[in-house]
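Practice problem: predict the structure.
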Amino acid sequence: MIKLLFLSGSSHIGSANWRLASAAAVVAEQSFGDRVEPVSLDLMQFDLPNLENASEHDRPEEAVRLKAAFDSVSGVFMSSDEYTGTYSAILRNAIGWLRRCDPKLRTPLDGMQVALCGTFGRGTGGLRGQPALQQFLRELGAVVIPQHLEMGTVENPFDREGRLLPKVQKQLLDGCLGKLCAKVIAAAAA
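Answer:
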């Protein structure tokens, strides 16, 4: 069974992108459950100190636990909000700790398939932040599969029960989620 990590780069619990990552994990299990095991991760559950204030040799237990979660998966689905044209400080700090916890100062993202998705409830949401996050992930060695959900006139990608709308689910399966699953399944079979 191939494990895929589902997380949001948002620091706002309950945001559209936070809910999108959770919903995408459900879609992956429904569509690829015989081959893919979704693992959901909430960065807000990790008490990570500000990396800028830490000494060079600090390795907090929470950072080691976060790195172990990334080390145990074959790919990542990330849904991220936009913060003034870039990505969240919590995501940047978490990735910094991943790197700090590696003896060679590499992240578990090096060579890993990462599906990067974004949506919004108003304004431009993840649209403006994705280029910066794509570049950052590629600098870390990730193989990025980008997608921005096209909502058309629909503001919310979820129905009243919190499930993805069929249109959005199809976009994910035809786009970054489907491609991510296909790539990690093919790599495991090789």
